[in-house]
Amino acid sequence: MDTLYQAWDASINDDEKDSDQLEQAAVAKESLRAATMEMVEMASIHFHRARENQGKVPKEGRMCLLPAVCGLKYLDSLKECNYDVLHPVLVGGGEDAAAVAVERRRRLSLMLMLGRTWLTGTF
């Protein structure tokens, strides 16, 4: 099963495409990366502000902040993948052993972070 990233790559690397289409695809990919970088930076600012103010949230309401842990982890993953939203690590790399291992590692890391947040009350 092809991932979005492989489909994108296939459309760019097709030999029948002319140079203008290849250039447009490369520009589109770079524009997507730039837009993603800007959104990640803004989201990081908001998450940082939420971290600073989480002490003002009553203890009973702090579990509403748990989804922020998943968001922070995803933003970190985007940064590691150079802001490529179509990277196989983010969209699923396939069914081979290496991709399955990466996915298991990502899920385990997220579960550990959620557990730590649940126990300590801070993210």
The biggest beta sheet reads:
none
Give the N-terminus to C-terminus distance in angstroms: 36 Å
Shape: flat
The total of helices stands at 5
Bin the helical content. over 70%
Element-level helix/strand string: HHHHH
Beta-strand content bin: under 5%
Rounded Rg: 18 Å
Structural class: mainly alpha
* Strand segment count: 0
- Mean pLDDT rating: 80
> Regions with pLDDT < 50 over 5+ consecutive residues?
none
Characteristics:
123 residues, mainly alpha, 5 helices, 72% helix
Describe this structure in words.
By secondary structure, this protein is mainly α. 72% of the residues lie in helices and 0% in strands. It contains five helices and no strands. Helix 3 packs antiparallel against helix 5 (97-120). The chain is flat and about 60 Å long. The two termini are 36 Å apart.
Write the layout of secondary structure elements.
Layout: H1 4-13, H2 19-53, H3 66-80, H4 88-91, H5 97-120
Helix pairs in contact: 2-3, 3-5
